[in-house]
Amino acid sequence: MLKLKFALPFILISTLVGSAPLAAEAGKPDDIYSDWAKSLYRTQDLSRFDGYWAFMLEKNGLEARNLVQPVLGFVNRVLHQHPELLKGRFDDLSKYPKAQRATLARLLWLSDTPEARQILEDQGQGNYLKKTIPPIENWEIKGAQDLDFCWGWFMATGDTAAVKPIVRTLDLGKDAGAIKRYATSEKTEADRQAAYNDAWFGAALWSLTSFGKTDERVATFLEQQFADPSTPKTRKTWLAMILGEVFPGKYKIKIADEPDRVGLELPAIDRTLAEVGAHAKNYPPKFGSTEEREKTEAKLRDVLNQLDAVLLDRPDDRELLMRAGMAHSMGHNLDFAESAKRCTQIYDHVLAMNPEDAWANLHYGIFLSGSRRQEQGMVCLEKALALGVKEANYPLAIACLTLEDPVNARVHLERYVADFPQDGRAMKLLQLLRDDKVTFKRQEWKSPGT
Predict the structure, then answer these.
(1) Res. 27 pLDDT band, cuts 50 70 90
(2) 41-70 per-position pLDDT tens digit
(3) Could you give the 3-state DSSP secondary structure of residue 15?
(4) Are residues 244 and 272 both part of a single domain?
(5) Which helix (H) or strand (E) holds 380?
(6) What local confidence, expressed as pLDDT, does residue 31 receive?
(7) Where are the alpha helices (DSSP H) in 233-289?
(8) What one-character DSSP code corresponds to residue 95?
(9) Interatomic CA distance for residues 73 and 204, integer angstroms
(10) Global pTM?
């Protein structure tokens, strides 16, 4: 069975660009050639080409799967613009190991010069001459290495047509979060493909942001793509997030009332939910003052408005739905009208899309249990537990206590403490459960309306 490994292999970035250099100190070959390669389209300085080529051969750049594509993308354009470099370096493929010759033949084919075509003919590789080289703007992205190929092409030429396929890869954001979900999925072929899509999307998102911050030409191109009326709305959402990072003073990512609203800055949403959660994750909420409560409620209302607005355009976006569900759950704890109803609708929708969504079952179960629907909540929590979410043992213990079942509460709590021994609140509660002198009785308490 296929085993997924998602390291987002941005080889071009790590070995050529220098955003994450392999060398720890300045002056190492990785740093020298990173800076040289990244600025080549501006400087056309070929003085380091031979050193770079020797360095890539030493790193097995013509055979290693994670290096071949960025090397091909970069070097083929260098040779296209400077065919004089072919002589003495690439005109005799027999001097290279046999395992490297296919990559070299492909390199010569892509360089698309009369000199390269003659070498292919002389070296018995004339079959390449029958193949058509697709325009770089139509390059097909089948993996992170293809993204690296396009970045290599751009670095050698400065041609933003090479960035177009990378921008198109943002459309795979429809599967964002699939890697995280894969662990608890049925691991079907569709699950695997969605996880791969998520990996390639993440690689594209990260690299466009990185290049946008360091290369004015890329930044300008991203703005043009964002302003282009033909750009799909969902792609604009991700472009807006990137531009918010590249031009933080110029692009403020927030929801407006216009029909072309673009999306959310999810990290900011997550930070706000964490801040609100410190007060309203459980019922009753806890505040030090009326002013603190008012500020917290205002923050949560703003987030709810943003999430609900975006979900009108993207009603099946699981990542947005999960955030909206948690936000409305806290709104319910703060007595927000309609939040309980909206929270139920959201989690019902998520589980209708995927009944085996472990984390949706967990959070829905917590919400239901906190809304005096313990029996329903326990069904979801037990399913989350069966799907591998060990955290479900704690809310199951609380639900059992609420239903005056301390025996099963203790069973779940002991399992939880065994998995999470650092949780002091759970340890204290377990000690109480183990104390025969302590009794637990159901207590009626005021709850937000359901």
Answers:
(1) very low
(2) 999 999 999 999 988 888 887 887 777 888
(3) helix
(4) no
(5) helix 374-386
(6) 58
(7) 233-246, 266-280
(8) G
(9) 16
(10) 0.55
Which two structure tokens, joined as six digits, stand for 256? 């407006």
Tell me: pLDDT of 352 over 90: yes
119-143 confidence digits (pLDDT tens): 999 988 888 888 999 999 999 888 8
Tell me the pLDDT tens digit for each residue of 226-255: 888 899 988 988 998 898 888 877 765 554
Confirm whether 366 is domain-assigned: no
Three-class HEC string of 150-200: HHHHHHHHCCHHHHHHHHHHHHHHHHCCHHHHHCCCCCCHHHHHHHHHHHH
Q: Which of 195, 203, 114, 210 lies closest to 155 in space, CA to CA? A: 210
User: In total, how many domains does the chain have?
Assistant: 3
Cis peptide before 284 (omega within 30 of 0): yes
Distance CA 269, CA 273 (A): 6
Residues 383, 327 within the same domain: no
Q: Is 213 in the same domain as 88?
A: yes
- Provide φ and ψ at 264, rounded to 5°: -130, 155
Q: What is the mean pLDDT of the chain?
A: 83
DSSP 16: I
∠ CA 435-441-446, rounded to 5°:
130
CB of 397 closer than 8 Å to CB of 416: yes
Let me know whether 387 and 238 are in one domain. Answer: no
| Beta-carbon contacts of residue 407 (< 8 Å; ≥ 6 apart) | none
